[in-house]
Amino acid sequence: MSTLATTLQAFFTDRLIRQRQVSPNTVQAYRDTMRLLLVFASEQRGKPPGKLAIDDLDAPLIGAFLDHLEHERKNSVRTRNARLAAIRSLFRYAALRHPDHAGTIERVLAIPPKRFERRLVTFLTEAEINALLAAPDRATWTGRRDTALFGLAVQTGLRASELTGLICADVHLGAGAHVSCNGKGRKQRITPLTSGTVSLLRAWLSERTGLPADPLFPTRTGRVLSRDAVERRLAGYVASATPRCPSLAHKRVTIHVLRHSAAMRLLRAGIDTSVIALWLGHEQIETTQVYLHADLQIKERALERTAPITTKPGRFRPTDKLLAFLEAL
């Protein structure tokens, strides 16, 4: 195998899995990036992927690959930057093992991420949340499961992977009711539960009757729900709820939108953004600032507290000779 092939294998087995112990989601994302890159480079260089060298993946080829993602595969700028981050991680690892290719590696690492417009986050109003949670048919097993699942999502703001990864033992409904999960970056997080969510989960657990290590929200066969299955069911309930709440027709509702909705609920209740960052499991508090920009009501309340400007326009005219002297300096 080529030097690139052995470096790439060591990057996954040694750097990502053994040293950094990244999550399976990160491994899959990096794997998909490298697979796309190797197929593109193989077509451009006329070599099979296993024969490609490090110098074959120079800065012009990486730039062409990024353009290919945007223009031919129609990837967003965010996706393009995520692919570039994976490539740069590989090349930083290669720099330690192959200093003889430092020139090529340095030029690839110098490729900057692309700037993009940051859109306001989408979130649901209380009326939209109520319509969505009323959509599942509670006369069916799956309807009761989904009511508990999406009710928990809206109240806690858990990510899709965190929701599907919950087991029965993660739910604690006694004094200080809460749910615990292993979140992004392998960080354990505990989120308190409201009385309404406690009632939903208590009813579901009594029907679920699973072992402590069983999935909290399983399929009919007892397996873990996939993220795609959760998103499909959510889209179906949004379609069912739209006639009762027409504003849902103008929003693309995903599990992450439910996460945003949980954050906006906390923000409007007056909770400090540092607490919201801990609640959502954000690595940096700056990530939570996007909710301040999205909430027009907070800006309107700030405007109401602002005293009206009654000062007449014009230039300051000092009345004292000494002040006039200082003004003239």
Strand content: under 5%
Second CATH tier, the architecture of the largest domain: Orthogonal Bundle
Instruction: Domain count, please report it.
Output: 2
- Approximately how much helix is present in the residues? 55-70%
Helix count, DSSP H or I runs of 4 or more residues: 15
Strand sequence of the main sheet, in spatial order? Answer: 1-2-3
Distance between the termini: 76 Å
The helix-strand sequence is HHHHHHHHEEEHHHHHHH
Major beta-sheet overview: 3 strands, antiparallel
Mean pLDDT: 87
Number of strands: 3
* Unreliably modeled segments: none
- What's the CATH class label of the largest domain? Mainly Alpha
Kindly report the CATH topology of the largest domain.
hpI Integrase, Chain A
Radius of gyration: 26 Å
Helix/strand-derived class?
Answer: mainly alpha
- The CATH homologous superfamily of the largest domain: Intergrase catalytic core
Global morphology: flat
